[in-house]
Amino acid sequence: MSYIVKIIIEAMAYSLMYGIFISSLIIIQGPLKQIYNYPPKIMNRVFELGLVNKKEAENDSKKYKALGFTLMIGLNLIFICIINKETSFWKGFLQSYIFFNSFSFFDALILDSLWFCNTKYFVIPGTEDMKNEYHNYWFHWQWFFIGLIALIPMAIVVGILTVCFGLLR
Fold first, then answer.
1. TM segments (predicted)?
2. Residue 131 is part of which domain span?
3. Contact 40, 138 (CB under 8 A)
4. What is the DSSP letter of 36?
5. Model confidence, pTM
């Protein structure tokens, strides 16, 4: 199997695995615990209605994003260092950049555009009239495009960790 095909298959597996984790978290926690992922107008309405404390939502955002980034990096290292046995910075960087962005695409298309924007599960009581905000596809896709640049530092970290793990062999 060619290197490119292998990485594409692994990127799809990575996206599916991390997508299952994120979906499970969303289902277990419910929409209000995920309010920090909602469009700003919906967030503001939820805060105004007193359904969620703004400070608590900010703390949840930091906590769950730190957990998410840690798991993303860890899952990358499993694929790159353990499965692929890579030891070079550039292979670690490139593969993780592809994996991160494949999940970002999966997130924007499947989790956000198809699931979030099109199911009643995510509609929070008191915000039912905000259909345009719930169907704001651009809000979700902008994060994919921002990620093309914003994920470079995370890929650099994985590249460095790939070298470090390589030195331990």
1. 12-32, 66-84, 96-123, 143-168
2. 3-24+70-167
3. no
4. G
5. 0.91
